[in-house]
Amino acid sequence: MARQFFVGGNFKMNGTKESVKKIIGYLNDSDLPAQVEVVIAPPALYLGLAVEVNTQKTVAIAAQNVFDKDAGAFTGEICPAQVKDLGATWTLTGHSERRTIIKESDEFVANKTKFALEQGLSVILCIGETLEERKAGITLDVCARQLDAASKIISDWTNIVVAYEPVWAIGTGLAATPDDAQETHKAIRAHLATTIGEKQAAEVRILYGGSVNGKNAKEFKDKADVDGFLVGGASLKPEFVDIIKSRL
Ligand code: PGA
Prior knowledge:
By secondary structure, the chain is of the alpha/beta class. The protein contains 10 helices and 8 strands. It has a single domain, classed as TIM Barrel (Alpha-Beta Barrel), CATH 3.20.20.
């Protein structure tokens, strides 16, 4: 079964009511290919607005993060049920900015992922190594460790998309080369085959993230294990549409 091309847009902590409407307007005004699944993640405050203004059937809305528990005394957190209440259907978990700045552990990320799935959200689970880890030659060990925390407690990966985002490539303008991304994606898939089984590993989509833009997206076109992208900075601009169309 061919894996459907997937493009995620992570707005991070950017935007206002006006700019979120404008960015979604770029998508609304475009002739998006029906075969590409698109998911955009505005800041949580604008999830409801994004759901309201989006007119594209192939575009779904995601939170950037959720908590691993339901309603209760958890000041400042948001739960999957609230994300769903606003009409969003996805969440990111484990983005490197949360792992490094907010110090989220592999276990916490895995617990959030499991809880979000149980609550009916689909999840973009982000993994990836830092520059130091890459230099030390432990890229795959790091990715495996981050994935294993999740596969230990989650057996059904149908509603998970994995995003491989090397930390050194995020927001730096220094994207991984298509060959490097392919090599790592292939190794990630091979590792997943040993933990979640060959069938699920063959079906799970693995996105590349880190300085993807309207120009370089096309260069990944023939990379068999690169099933799409998770885009930060460029998802705020009209060129996001070029990335969505990069496989045509
Ligand atoms: P970038 O971010 O495209 O701005 O490098 C990617 C991400 O963090 O998801």
